[in-house]
Write a structure and sequence with these properties.
Two copies of one chain form a homodimer.
Chain A: E1 5-9, E2 25-28, H1 40-44, E3 47-55, E4 58-59, H2 62-75, H3 83-96, E5 102-110, E6 120-127, H4 132-137, E7 139-145, H5 152-155, H6 169-180, E8 185-189, E9 202-207, E10 210-214, H7 224-235, E11 239-243, H8 248-252, E12 255-260, E13 264-271, E14 274-275, H9 280-291
Parallel strand pairs in A: 7-8, 7-13, 10-11
Antiparallel strand pairs in A: 1-2, 1-6, 3-4, 3-5, 5-6, 9-10, 9-12, 12-13, 13-14
Keywords (chains A, B): Lyase
GO molecular function (chains A, B): 4-amino-4-deoxychorismate lyase activity
Enzyme class (chains A, B): lyase
Chain lengths: 295, 295
């Protein structure tokens, strides 16, 4: 089996019948050029993406990721994606991958070539990095100022804060800054003192037995992994809540996690240099659940 | 002559001798694929760019653009570009273009392919759009909240505010919002009430005969066209200044311009729906200067 799959996708209108979608896929070799320099994704980070995990042949939460892709498209005024076409692309890629192991499957919808007639789209699946250490031993985290108030999205929707856009250079710079500070990852905090999100993850705190995550105000992404985990916790009778979380609560929490689609749940062991209790047993249960087939 | 030129560039280290740079250029057809899907420029807007004008065969302010490219690279922790190599690429592209007319020449330095060994780079030159109307008749502008305090860059350098990165999706969204409001362009204002910049331009005001532009605090780009125009004004005995400009001063100004490398000087004729005096004669002098060969 191939360990990487790259499909160029000719996007169908949202309401087009998806009964002959195979003709809209074109498999390419990822080591060969596939995109033109006029691509607005590359010129201006002007497009959106999703990254989902494929675990032992199963694409995790494909529908939740595609619903978020559709939401990002709406925020960015991109043509509404045809979810059936994307589901078919995910199925085709997944069936070409080995039936065991973990893979990262990235979906990209770009505004297309400058002055071009249509968006461009592709899917790229490749082996996931080995996340054994962050899953089992946790991560050190520093907080970094995101510069924006936690209600910025309502005042300035053109900042596209609720969309998962390709304009991620500041997110990558924040991760470099975290590493420079001796940490593994970062939690963005708003200029008015609220917990936001990681550059590529959602934040979950547990205080007095209640699992909390920042309210999806539009200034942060609504995390697919966080939502899946909250549903799982609720089914198990645990209490969960969405609310504005002042930064000071990070230090009061009895456990903190960063959760994301491919690394899954990583417990925080240190926050800005201070130790945080790492709940190894709960983190293992989280990851056992997150590695099980989910839809 | 070709009206578009695309050169893929194998970036040399900053201190490498640039005596055989032609071997580092590979001319391609812009309509053919040239970039891999693993490109971090396209996956994460993770790279930097410059756009300069070529007017009647002359690349305008090439050195100023390359110095800014080098500054952007430093902020983004990209390898320092070899400016001699970039100058050679600009010369090669310029010599291949027609000797009359206006062209936009875009330089891109990307972090490269994910997990790859080196950055990737390219240059793409194409005919400039026809900017006769905005130059001669001006533009309507609305102000839009940038969400950030005007001193955000000092507090949060990981936001990369002083770098011209490829993560421009919010800039493009702000232009769409401006058009939705019946305007042609926008001026970003900081959350604490200061004038910042346009999404692809610098702001210049004239109040009581003094030309002012926001101080380059790091939260905005230092505009190459604005700098060139200020030098020109100073040589002509005019007064110029860099300072923090409260938004309220926009309404007090006797003229406002957005200036950029390819559209050049566009006088503002309306601001948030209120008329602004359009100084047609000065704007024409600005554009006569900006269209003359400049280094």
């Amino acid at each position: 089996m191939a360990s990487t799959v790259t499909l160029l996708i000719a996007p169908l209108p949202a309401d087009a019948p998806a009964d002959d979608v195979d003709a809209t896929f074109h498999e390419v070799d990822a080591s060969e050029p596939a995109l033109r320099v006029g691509e607005l994704s590359t010129q201006r980070g002007d497009g959106i993406f999703e990254t989902l995990a494929v675990v032992d042949g199963h694409a995790q939460e494909a529908q939740a990721h595609l619903v978020r892709l559709r939401n990002s498209a709406a925020i960015c005024e991109l043509p509404e994606p045809n979810l059936e076409q994307w589901h078919a692309a995910i199925r085709r890629a997944t069936s070409a991958l080995p039936s065991t192991g973990e893979f990262a499957l990235k979906l990209v919808l770009s505004r297309g070539v400058e002055h071009g007639p249509a968006p461009t789209a592709w899917l790229h699946a490749s082996p996931a990095a080995d996340f054994t250490v962050p899953r089992e031993q946790g991560i050190r985290v520093v907080t970094l100022d995101r510069g924006l108030a936690h209600d910025a999205a309502a005042r300035a929707p053109w900042l596209l804060l609720g969309a998962k856009t390709l304009s991620y250079a500041p997110n990558m710079a924040a991760l470099r800054e975290a590493k420079r500070r001796g940490a593994d990852d970062t939690i963005f905090v708003s200029s008015d003192g609220f917990v936001m999100e990681g550059p590529t993850s959602s934040v979950i705190l547990r205080i007095d037995g209640v699992y909390s995550t920042p309210a999806p105000s539009g200034a942060i992404l609504h995390g697919t992994t966080q939502q899946s985990l909250f549903e799982h916790l609720e089914h198990a009778g645990e209490r969960t809540e969405y609310r504005d979380i002042p930064v000071a609560e990070l230090a009061l929490a009895d456990a903190v996690w960063l959760v994301s689609s491919v690394r899954l749940a990583a417990g925080v062991t240190a926050l800005d240099g201070a130790s945080v209790t790492f709940d190894e047993a709960t983190t293992r249960r989280f990851n056992d659940y997150l590695l099980s087939p989910r839809d």
